[in-house]
Amino acid sequence: MNEEVSEIDRLVKVFLSTLAIIITIGLIMVWSSSYILASESFGSPYHYIIRQLIYLFLAIGVAYGVSKTKHTFWLKYGYLVNIAASVIVALTIIKGIGASAKGASRWLTFGGMSLQPGEIVKFTVILSALTFFENWNKMDNKERMKHGCTLFLPLALLIKQPDFGTFFICFTTISFVCFMSSFPRKYFYYSLISGGVGGVFILFSQAYRVKRMLTYLDPWKNPQGSGFQIIQSYMAFAHGSALGQGLGNSNEKLFYLPEAHNDFIFSVIGEELGFIGVFLLIALFVAFIYFGFKLALQIKDRVSVIMASSIVFVLGLQALLNMGVVLGLLPTKGLNLPFVSYGGSSLLCNFFGIGLLLSVIKGYRDQLHGENNFRPRSTTSRNKQSTEVEENDPEQVYV
């Protein structure tokens, strides 16, 4: 048991160390990619980097606070947290409350700051989905309908905004949780096929999405219009070559490449640090995902494994999608690079996910140390006197 605890502690250190390196690179590149834009727009080259540092300190505080809570609390009230997140997302599409940009209403603004509620939904759907799928066999049809509606409500709101990128991440995450859970396999495959067909319909239901697909296939057809951003991204990587132009020497960030400090910061990394920098960052994300999954698999109770691995899955999926878009391997979509791109909402919510992961790990460590009288669900007594034990069972999923 001591060896198991030591291995978990070692993996946590490696996992967090990898994350710290990614964040450090992110801070450096936010500064490098934004200081000219900040000078022109706000009269200070430090505008974006100072805000990013403030967000980072707040995010670390969020992660620390969440990590000190019991993960069973989040499992018990996960569907309520998801409903609360859905309500906040709904506010973005109410005229006069939500802030619109580029045809989408994804933000709430207050006190000179903006919040993108869709970011938190990526994690709240994990909690709601885990509750829903793990309790499927214990629910009647009425309960299934009720909890199914609470699970898929935020997805409908994301389409309404519209935010197809976040919708896709949430839908894929729900599918991942469903596959990992005890949900009946035949229903899973039917649901996956139906969801896939529905997703294709949603994708081609709007003209601007079809336009993005056509641009993805041939960006040079309209190089000064819809293909401009991805072409500038190509040029950034081409200028970077093997060793890069040097830190701070990007030309594309000089108002050529839109969102250089945000969605397309990976392009600036390619131009300034070259193939070496790109390879290093990809290797760091691969290590982050690998050690995250390995850490999750150290846990012996299945529900906690699903919760922990789903969090790693979300972060890895978004990193993969962002890099794929920037490299031109996927159609252009507004998704930032986790822990690297500028953005307070993303940073706060991603650290919320890290806090949840650490909470799961802490719960299992406490179990190994015998600090709690938890017993695995498979051996827990089901008689009338076991009610109090079940309420503290780390494998018990609450509806």
Structure summarized in a few sentences:
This protein is mainly alpha-helical and 399 residues long. It has helices at residues 2-42, 47-67, 71-76, 78-92, 118-134, 141-160, 164-180, 185-203, 207-217, 228-240, 265-297, 302-326, 344-369, 387-391; strands at residues 98-101, 104-110, 113-115.
Report helical residue fraction: 55-70%
How far apart are the first and last residues' alpha carbons, in Å?
32 Å
Tell me the major beta sheet. 3 strands, antiparallel
Mean pLDDT over the residues: 87
> How many helical stretches?
14
H-E string:
HHHHEEEHHHHHHHHHH
Strand content: under 5%
Number of strands: 3
Overall domain count: 1
Descriptive overview:
This protein has 14 helices and three strands. By secondary structure, the protein is mainly alpha-helical.
Name its key features:
67% helix; mainly alpha; single chain; 399 residues; globular
Write the layout of secondary structure elements.
Elements: H1 2-42, H2 47-67, H3 71-76, H4 78-92, E1 98-101, E2 104-110, E3 113-115, H5 118-134, H6 141-160, H7 164-180, H8 185-203, H9 207-217, H10 228-240, H11 265-297, H12 302-326, H13 344-369, H14 387-391
Antiparallel strand pairs: 1-2, 2-3
